[in-house]
Design brief:
single chain; 1440 residues; alpha+beta; 8-stranded mixed beta sheet
C-alpha cells in the first residue's frame, strides 16, 4: 500500500487554477475553462422552512444540542489532523524566464488557507442540521429529497428571478409530510431515480422521478414526486442501511462487460439486488394504476412481480456500506492460473470463463470485504408487488386530497397489509477475501464511474483508494475525519488535444478516441475544505473553502430504463456531483477540465498555465514602472502557445486596473502584429478578430477622453423666449410649463443617486471594455444594470449636455466607431432621465439636448427612408417609450417637448421638399404639416403633464407630524410613470391619491375643502374648516394652502378620475385595507367609515359598504361574536388577541365601526331609490388605460341588500358594542335571539333569510329585559364616573363617541328587541336619581310617557334618601325630628334600605325638588299620595 503525500502537498500544474472567484481557495484570475471551478447552479427558496419542519429543535432561538465530538484516533497518526498548518495557496510569481525550473517546487509546498471559525456555537448548531439528514438529488436535477427521522421534504426546481434580477434555478418545497407507516420506523436511506420516457419523440428529459425510501423497519417504499405511495416491499426484516442504484452505460471498449441495471439494498447481514428492468416495469404499472384510480376508479391491474436476488453475507463482523461492482469475468490467464491452483497440471479448463457478480463491503473484520456470487448459482426470487393504490375512485380522491403520503392513511391500512409479508431466506455468500485491519472500521465506500476504483473512508480520518479488480489499496490520504467523497469523470475534448508534429493522418483523428480521466472529490467538513484529486497517483488539482456545514451528493447513476438502443444519441443533462451549502442556501457543482489530469511537466498546456499565473502575479504586483510591466507582459503573452490561453491572458491584462491605456494598446497591438506574421494556416482567426476589436475599442476610448478634456467656448445661455421658440410653445404654455416644473422641484425631495465614476464623467478603461463588444463592425452594449448604462452614457454625453464639449464631433466619432443611432439614443435618454435634478438646475441643457437629438436623428438608418407622415417612425416611438417608462416625470416631460420639436422640424423640412417639387412658386407658408407622430407626441405631452402634476401632489406633505405615526404610514410611496398609470386601470389615479391621503393622515374634510375652494374660491370657509384636518393633529396646518392648491390642480386635470365620490371611495378602501394589515390601528377603520359617509351617491356608498363588510369585517365579527358568547362577558385582552387578532380596546372600536357601517349601508339602501347610479367617464388622454377594474365599478356591480337581514345584523353589532363598551358581565349575546335569529347571522347580506317574526318567546324577552337593565345601569355608572374624573379618559379611548347619544341608542335597541321603550326610559331616570345626578334625571323625566308609574318608583327612592338622612346619620336633631313625624311615615321610613342607593348623600334641597316632582305626577287618588304629602312636610322640616 503506497501512502499519498499529505493533503495539499502534491498540487499539480492545474492546482494554479484550483480556486473559485467567490472567496474560496484564493484567486487565480484564470478563466473557468482552464482551471477547476465551483459553479453555482441553483439556490434554495426557503431552506429555513424545511429545517424548521424536519428539525424543530434546530429552530432559531431554541437551544439545539451540539453534536458530540468524535473519539480520538487510536493509531499513531491520531493527531495528524490537528497538527496540520494552514498555508496560503497563492504562489508568488518568479521572474525567471525558464518555466521548467521556475516555481514548481513552490506548488508542491502549497496548501490551501483554511476557513475562519464560525461566529458562535449556537449558529453552528443551527447550520449543521443538514449533517443529520438523509439527502438525495436526482442526477437530472428535477427533484431533491431531504429526510430526517419520519419526516421528509420534496423540493422541485423552478426558474425565478433572484434579488439581482437575474434568472436562476430555485428549489421550492413541492411536498412535505411524514413517511412512516409502521410505528417507530425512521427513514434510513433515500434515492431519487429518474425513469426514462418510452416515447420516441423524447427530448432527453426523464418521464418522471421515483423516490425510493428505505426504513429502519426493513421496508423499502416507492413514491411519486407528489408523495403518492406506489408500492412497498419487505424483503428483509432488518433495518435498511443503504440504497444504491446502477443504470445502463454504453461500454467504452468492446472487451468491457455490459452491466445490467439494478437497485441494491444493504441490510446488516444481507444484500438484496432488484433487477432494473423488472423494477422499471413494476413502477410504470403502479404509476399507471394510480392515474387510473384517480381518474375513474376502474379495475386494479396486477403489475409484474419484482425479480430480485438475496445474498446472506457471512464471515463478516459488521457491514455499514457496500458497492455493487457488477458482473465481472476472469481473463483467460487468471482463469488458467486458478484452474491450475485448484486442479493441478491436468486440470480441465472451460471454454468460457465464469461470470460473477462482485460486491465490496466496508465495516469491520474485515475492514473491506470482497464477495463474488457466481452467475446462475441462485435463481432469482419473485416478489409479489404490494400495490399501495386504491381501486375505488372515492378512496383515491379522498386520500389524494388529504395531503398524507400514499393513497391510504396509517389508520386506514387494509388488514392484509398489517400482516407482514413472507420474507424469503437469503442465499449464503462467504467473503472471498478482504483487507484485514482489526482496529480500523470502514464508514463509506464510493465506486468510481469506470467501476475499477473505489474510495473508502474510515474512523481514523483516512481516505483509502482501492483497486477493486485486484483487491488492493493503492493510495491513502490522511486527516479527513467525517469526510464525504464522490467522483467526477471527465472526457477529453479532441479539439483541445495537443497536436504532435509529423503525426497527421488522413483518417480523422490520429490521436484515437477521447480519453477519460477520473477525479476523486473529498469534502472535509471539519475544516470546511473541498478538494479535487487526480487518480490514481495524481496530485491535488483544486481546493475550495466552502464552509463546515455542507453536504456532498454523489448519486453514481443516471437515468433508469435505457438500453444499448435507446441510449444511442440520447444525451440527457445529468450532473455527476454537487455540494449543498445550508448557510448560503446554494447548490453547486464542480467543473474540472480534462487537461488537469495531464501532470507531465513538458506539457504545453501546463507551461501555458504557468505563464498565465506569472502574468496574473505580475499584474497584481505593486510596481511603479508601467514600462517594465508592459515589457514583461508582452514577453509572457508571446511565449504562450495555445490561442485560447493567449486570449485568456489578454483578457486578464485588459481587465487589470493597474495597466494604463497606452500600455494596453501597445500590448494588444504587439500580439496582433505577432499573429499577422504567422502563416495563415496557423493563425487562430477568432483570436485575431478579438485583438482587432479590442484595439478599436481602445482607440475609441482614447478619442472620447480627448473630446471630454477639450473645453470649448460656452455660448451665452438661451433666454426664456429662445427656449419657448425652440420647443415651439407660446408664452402662456411656456409659463405654465415653468410653473409645473418649479412646483415639482420644490416638492421633490428625492435624493439623487451618485455613482463612483460620475464626478468628472470619467470611466475606467476596464469598465469601458466590459460594457461594450464588437460584432460585425458594429458596437453593441452588453446587458447591464441601469446605473452602469447611465455611467456609459455620462462618459459619452454629459459634457455635451453641459455645453462643455463639441456635440457634433462626439456624434461623428461615435457614429464612425460603429455605434447605431438607436443605441446612442438609448444611452442619451437613459442619462437625461436619470439626471433630473441636475437638468432642472441647468435649463440651458434643454437646448443642448435639442442639438444632440437633431444630430442623431439625421444619422443614417436613424429614421427609415420609407417613413412618411402617415406612419409611426420606430425612431420616435423608441424615444416615446423611454419617456412613458420613466419615473422621473420632469425630465421625461422636457425630453418629450424636445422630441416633439425635433420631429416637427424634420416633418417641416420633408413637407417643404415635397411641396417644392409639386407646386413651384405657390404660397405654402400658411400650411401646417400634420403627421401621426406629431399627434402621438401631443398625446404623450398631455399624459406626462398629468403625471407630473399627480407626482408633485404625492411629493407634498405637511411640515410637521409630532404625534405617533403608524409604521404603515411611514412606508414611502412609489414613484409614478405614464406606463404605471396606463396599466393601473381606471381607478389607478384615485387609488394613487388615496395612498397619499393615507400616508399624510388627512381627514375627508381636506378633499372636500379643496373641491369647495375650486368651486367657490371662498377662503373664509377654508379657514373655518381647517379644524380636524388631520387624523391625530388638529394643530398641524402648515403647508395646507399649498396642498389645497395642488389638489385643486389635480382635480382640474382629472375631472372624471378624481371626482369626489370616486376619491372618497378609494380613500375608504385604502384605509380599510391598511387597517386589515394592522387591526390594532382602529383609527384607520374609523377614518374609512368617515370617508364612506362622505360619498354622496348612494349607489356607490352601498356597494363600497357591502364590499367592506364581505371582504374585511364579517369574518372578524363572527369570531368576536362566538368568543363573547363563549365567555359570557366582555373578553380580556389576551382572548381578544388570540381569537380576533386585536386587543380589547381595538375590538371595542371595531364593533362600534361595524354598527356604523351597517347603519350607513341601511341608509344608502333607502337613498339609492331616490337617485340614479353615476356614469363613470375617463379623460380623453387616458382612454387607452388598461388594468384591473376600479373599486367604484365593482361597487356598482354589487347586488341590493335584503334590508331586514342587515337590520337584524345591525342589532347584533349594537349589542356586541354595548357589551364591550361598558364591560358587561354575565351576558351571552346570542341568548338574546331565538334559533331563527341565530341562524340568520353572518349570512350573505343580499340573500333572503328566514328571520324572526310575530310574538317572541317570553323567556327570550325576559333575557332581553334583564340585558337592557344592565346596559342602562352600566351607562349611568360610566356617566357618573366620567363626571367625577376631570381628565376625561373616555374620550381619549373613544374619540368618535363625542356626539354619541347613548340613551337614544339604548332606547332604539329596546325597540329592535321588542322591549317596552318607556320601561327603559323609566329605569334610566331612576338610575340617574339613584346616582344623585338629579339635573340629568329632570331632563330625562320629560321623555317618559307613563309618568305616574315613574313617580311611584321615585317615591321609594325619596324614602331611601330620607331614611339615610334621619336613621343612619344618628344625630340628635334627626332623632327629635323623627319623633315628631307621623307614625305611618316613621314605620315606612324604617322599612326603607338606603344601601340600595348608589349615592345617598344628596343635598336635602335637591331631594325636596324630587318630592315636589313626585307629588306633581301622582294622582290624588293614588294609594301613596298621602305618604307623599307627609314626605313634603318631613323634607321641609329637615331643611328648616
Amino acid at each position: 500500500m503506497r501512502p499519498a503525500e499529505a493533503v495539499g502537498k502534491s498540487a499539480t500544474v492545474s492546482g494554479l487554477g484550483g480556486r473559485r472567484r467567490e472567496g474560496g481557495g484564493g484567486g487565480g484570475g484564470t478563466s473557468g475553462t482552464m482551471s477547476c471551478t465551483l459553479v453555482p447552479f441553483g439556490h434554495f427558496q426557503d431552506l429555513e422552512a424545511a429545517r424548521d419542519f424536519l428539525c424543530p429543535h434546530r429552530r432559531q432561538g431554541s437551544a439545539a444540542a451540539g453534536r458530540e465530538s468524535d473519539s480520538s484516533e487510536n493509531d499513531d497518526d491520531s493527531n495528524e489532523n490537528s497538527e496540520r498548518s494552514s498555508k496560503n495557496l497563492t504562489v508568488k510569481a518568479s521572474k525567471s524566464a525558464n518555466w521548467e525550473d521556475d516555481g514548481w517546487g513552490a506548488w508542491d509546498d502549497a496548501e490551501i488557507q483554511e476557513p475562519e471559525e464560525e461566529e458562535s456555537t449556537s449558529k453552528n448548531q443551527r447550520n449543521c442540521w443538514l449533517q443529520d439528514c438523509v439527502l438525495s438529488l436526482s442526477p437530472t436535477n428535477d427533484l431533491m429529497v431531504i429526510a430526517n427521522e419520519q419526516k421528509a421534504v420534496f423540493l422541485v426546481p423552478k426558474w425565478k428571478h433572484s434579488d439581482k434580477g437575474k434568472e436562476e434555478m430555485q428549489y421550492a418545497v413541492g411536498w412535505s409530510g411524514c413517511l412512516n407507516v409502521e410505528e417507530g420506523e425512521c427513514v434510513s436511506s433515500v434515492l431519487c431515480i429518474p425513469l426514462a420516457s418510452q416515447k420516441r419523440s423524447s427530448t432527453g428529459r426523464p418521464d418522471w422521478t421515483c423516490i425510493v425510501v428505505g426504513f429502519t423497519s426493513g421496508y423499502v417504499r416507492f413514491y411519486t414526486e407528489s408523495g403518492v405511495l406506489l408500492l412497498a416491499q419487505l424483503l428483509n426484516e432488518d433495518p435498511v442501511l443503504q440504497l444504491k442504484c446502477r443504470t445502463y452505460e454504453i461500454p467504452r471498449h468492446p472487451g468491457v462487460t455490459e452491466q445490467n441495471e439494478e437497485l441494491s439494498i444493504l441490510y446488516p447481514a444481507a444484500i438484496v439486488t432488484i433487477d432494473g428492468f423488472s423494477l422499471f416495469q413494476s413502477l410504470r404499472a403502479c404509476r399507471n394504476q394510480v392515474a387510473r384510480a384517480a381518474a375513474s376508479g376502474n379495475e386494479n391491474v396486477q403489475p409484474p412481480p419484482l425479480a430480485y436476488k438475496k445474498w446472506g453475507l457471512q464471515d463478516v463482523d459488521t457491514i455499514v456500506d457496500h458497492a455493487s461492482i457488477g458482473i465481472t469475468t476472469l481473463s483467460p490467464f487468471d482463469q488458467m492460473k486458478t484452474a491450475s491452483n485448484i486442479g493441478g497440471y491436468n486440470a480441465a479448463i472451460k471454454n468460457s470463463p465464469p461470470a460473477m457478480s462482485q460486491y465490496v463491503t466496508v465495516g469491520s473484520n474485515p475492514f473491506t470485504g470482497f464477495f463474488f456470487a457466481l452467475e446462475g448459482s441462485s435463481q432469482p426470487l419473485l416478489s409479489h408487488v404490494a400495490l399501495a393504490v386504491a381501486s375505488k375512485l372515492t378512496s383515491a380522491l379522498f386520500n389524494a386530497a388529504s395531503g398524507w403520503l400514499g393513497w391510504k392513511s396509517k389508520h386506514e391500512e387494509e388488514p392484509a397489509q398489517k400482516q407482514k409479508p413472507k420474507v424469503e431466506p437469503a442465499t449464503p455468500l462467504a467473503v472471498r477475501f478482504g483487507l484485514p485491519d482489526s482496529r480500523r472500521h470502514g464508514e463509506r465506500i464510493c465506486l468510481s464511474p469506470c467501476n475499477t476504483l473505489a474510495a473508502v473512508t474510515d474512523d481514523f480520518g483516512r481516505v483509502i483508494l482501492l483497486d477493486v479488480t485486484r483487491g488492493l489499496a493503492v493510495r491513502m490520504w490522511k486527516g479527513y475525519r467525517d469526510a464525504e467523497i464522490g467522483w467526477i469523470q471527465t472526457v477529453e475534448d479532441l479539439h483541445e488535444r495537443e497536436t504532435e508534429k509529423m503525426d497527421f493522418s488522413p483518417f480523422g483523428h490520429a490521436q484515437g478516441p477521447s480519453r477519460v480521466a477520473q477525479f476523486l472529490v473529498i469534502y472535509a467538513p471539519r475544516r470546511g475544505i473541498l478538494e479535487v484529486w487526480s487518480t490514481q497517483q495524481g496530485p491535488r488539482v483544486g481546493a475550495f473553502n466552502v464552509g463546515k456545514h455542507c453536504r456532498l451528493l454523489y448519486p453514481g447513476y443516471k437515468i433508469m430504463g435505457l438500453n444499448n438502443v435507446t441510449s444511442q444519441g440520447w444525451q440527457p443533462q445529468t450532473y455527476q456531483i454537487c455540494l449543498l451549502d445550508p448557510v448560503s442556501g446554494s447548490v453547486k457543482t464542480i467543473h474540472i477540465p480534462f487537461h488537469l489530469a495531464l501532470s507531465d511537466k513538458k506539457s504545453e498546456r501546463a507551461k501555458d498555465m504557468h505563464l498565465v499565473k506569472k502574468l496574473n502575479a505580475l499584474l497584481k504586483a505593486k510596481t511603479s514602472d508601467p514600462d517594465l510591466v508592459e515589457a514583461e507582459a508582452k514577453e509572457l503573452i508571446l511565449d504562450i502557445k495555445y490561442p485560447a490561453t493567449k486570449k485568456q491572458a489578454l483578457e486578464s491584462i485588459l481587465t487589470s486596473e493597474r495597466v494604463p491605456l497606452l500600455s494596453l494598446t501597445n500590448i494588444t497591438q504587439t500580439l496582433m502584429d505577432d499573429l499577422k506574421k504567422q502563416e495563415l494556416e496557423c493563425v487562430d482567426e477568432a483570436l485575431l478578430q478579438f485583438c482587432a476589436n479590442k484595439l478599436k475599442l481602445l482607440h475609441l476610448y482614447e478619442l472620447v477622453s480627448k473630446l471630454n478634456s477639450q473645453k470649448i467656448q460656452e455660448d451665452t445661455p438661451p433666454t426664456d423666449n429662445d427656449l419657448a421658440k425652440l420647443l415651439r410653445l407660446d408664452e402662456k404654455d411656456f409659463l405654465r410649463l415653468q410653473t409645473l416644473l418649479e412646483n415639482y422641484k420644490q416638492e421633490d425631495t428625492q435624493t439623487a443617486v451618485q455613482f463612483a465614476d460620475e464626478k468628472d464623467c470619467v470611466l475606467s478603461v476596464k469598465t469601458f471594455l466590459e460594457y461594450l463588444e464588437y460584432e460585425k463592425d458594429t458596437i453593441n452594449v452588453k446587458n447591464m444594470e441601469d446605473g452602469e448604462y447611465v455611467a456609459l452614457g455620462s462618459f459619452f454625453f454629459w459634457k455635451c449636455l453641459h455645453g462643455e464639449s463639441s456635440t457634433e464631433e462626439m456624434c461623428h466619432t461615435l457614429e464612425s466607431a460603429g455605434f447605431s443611432p438607436q443605441i446612442l439614443l438609448s444611452l442619451l435618454l437613459n442619462l437625461w432621465l436619470s439626471k433630473e435634478k441636475d437638468i432642472l438646475d441647468k435649463p440651458d441643457s434643454v437646448s443642448c439636448l435639442h442639438t444632440m437629438l437633431s444630430l442623431l436623428s439625421r444619422m443614417k438608418v436613424a429614421i427609415d427612408e420609407s417613413w412618411d407622415t402617415q406612419s409611426v417612425s420606430p425612431w420616435w416611438q423608441q424615444m416615446r417609450t423611454a419617456c412613458i417608462q420613466s419615473e422621473n416625470n420632469a425630465a421625461a416631460l422636457l425630453s418629450a417637448h424636445v422630441g416633439h420639436s425635433v420631429t416637427a422640424e424634420i416633418i417641416d423640412s420633408v413637407t417643404e421638399k415635397k411641396f417644392s417639387q409639386i407646386i413651384v412658386g405657390s404660397d405654402t407658408d400658411s400650411w401646417e404639416a400634420l403627421s401621426l407622430d406629431t399627434e402621438y407626441w401631443k398625446l404623450l405631452l398631455k399624459q406626462l403633464e398629468d403625471c407630473l402634476i399627480l407626482q408633485t401632489l404625492l411629493h407634498s406633505k405637511v411640515s410637521k407630524r409630532t404625534t405617533r405615526i403608524s409604521s404603515l404610514q411611514t412606508e414611502p410611496l412609489g414613484r409614478l410613470s405614464v406606463k404605471k398609470l396606463l396599466e393601473g386601470g381606471k381607478g389607478g389615479f384615485a387609488d394613487t391619491v388615496a395612498k397619499w391621503v393615507f400616508k399624510q393622515g388627512f381627514s375627508p374634510a381636506v378633499l372636500n375643502l379643496a373641491k369647495c375652494k375650486k368651486d367657490t374660491d371662498s377662503t373664509e370657509e377654508s379657514v373655518e374648516m381647517h379644524s380636524n384636518i388631520f387624523l391625530e393633529e388638529p394643530e398641524a396646518e402648515a403647508g395646507l394652502e399649498t396642498i389645497l392648491e395642488l389638489l385643486q390642480l389635480a382635480y382640474e386635470q382629472f375631472p372624471c378620475s378624481l371626482e369626489l365620490d370616486v376619491l372618497h371611495a378609494h380613500c375608504c378602501w385604502e384605509y380599510v385595507v391598511q387597517w386589515n394589515k394592522d387591526p390594532e390601528e382602529a383609527c384607520f377603520l374609523i377614518r374609512s367609515i368617515d370617508h364612506l359617509r362622505c360619498i354622496i351617491n348612494a349607489h356607490v356608498q352601498h356597494g363600497i359598504a357591502l364590499m367592506m363588510w364581505n371582504t374585511f369585517i364579517v369574518k372578524r365579527l363572527s369570531s368576536a361574536t362566538y368568543l363573547m358568547d363563549k365567555v359570557g362577558k366582555a373578553p380580556k385582552d389576551r382572548l381578544c388577541r388570540r381569537d380576533v387578532g386585536m386587543g380589547d380596546t381595538a375590538m371595542t372600536l371595531f364593533l362600534g365601526c361595524c354598527s356604523d357601517l351597517l347603519q350607513t349601508l341601511l341608509e344608502a339602501d333607502v337613498s339609492s331609490d331616490e337617485m340614479q347610479a353615476p356614469v363613470l367617464d375617463t379623460e380623453d388622454a387616458w382612454l387607452s388605460v388598461e388594468g384591473p377594474i376600479s373599486i367604484v365599478e365593482l361597487a356598482l356591480e354589487q347586488k341590493r341588500i335584503h334590508y331586514p337581514l342587515v337590520e337584524h345584523q345591525f342589532v347584533l353589532c349594537t349589542v356586541l358594542y354595548v357589551i364591550m363598551r361598558f364591560s358587561l358581565k354575565s351576558v351571552k349575546p346570542l341568548s338574546l335571539f331565538d334559533s331563527k335569529g341565530k341562524n340568520a347571522f353572518f349570512k350573505d347580506l343580499t340573500s333572503i333569510q328566514l328571520l324572526p317574526s310575530g310574538d317572541m318567546d317570553p323567556n327570550v324577552l325576559s333575557i332581553r329585559q334583564q340585558f337592557l337593565v344592565k346596559v342602562v345601569s352600566a351607562l349611568v355608572q360610566t356617566l357618573c364616573s366620567s363626571q367625577k374624573a376631570k381628565g376625561v379618559s373616555e374620550e381619549e379611548l373613544f374619540p368618535f363617541e363625542k356626539e354619541k347619544d347613548w340613551p337614544t341608542v339604548v332606547v332604539d335597541l329596546a325597540q329592535h328587541l321588542q322591549i317596552c321603550e318607556d320601561a327603559v326610559r323609566r329605569h334610566y331616570v331612576c338610575e340617574l336619581y339613584n346616582y344623585g345626578i338629579d339635573h340629568l334625571g329632570e331632563e330625562a323625566f320629560l321623555q317618559v310617557t307613563d309618568k305616574e308609574v315613574l313617580a311611584s318608583q321615585l317615591l321609594i327612592l325619596t324614602g331611601q334618601r330620607l331614611a339615610f338622612a334621619l336613621l343612619h346619620m344618628q344625630t340628635k336633631e334627626g332623632m327629635e325630628l323623627l319623633a315628631r313625624l307621623p307614625p305611618t311615615l316613621c314605620t315606612w321610613l324604617k322599612a326603607m334600605d338606603p344601601q340600595d342607593l348608589q349615592n345617598p348623600e344628596v343635598p336635602i334641597a335637591t331631594t325636596a325638588k324630587l318630592v315636589n316632582k313626585v307629588i306633581e305626577h301622582l294622582p290624588e287618588n293614588h294609594g301613596q299620595y298621602s305618604l307623599a304629602l307627609n314626605l313634603i312636610e318631613a323634607v321641609e322640616a329637615i331643611s328648616s
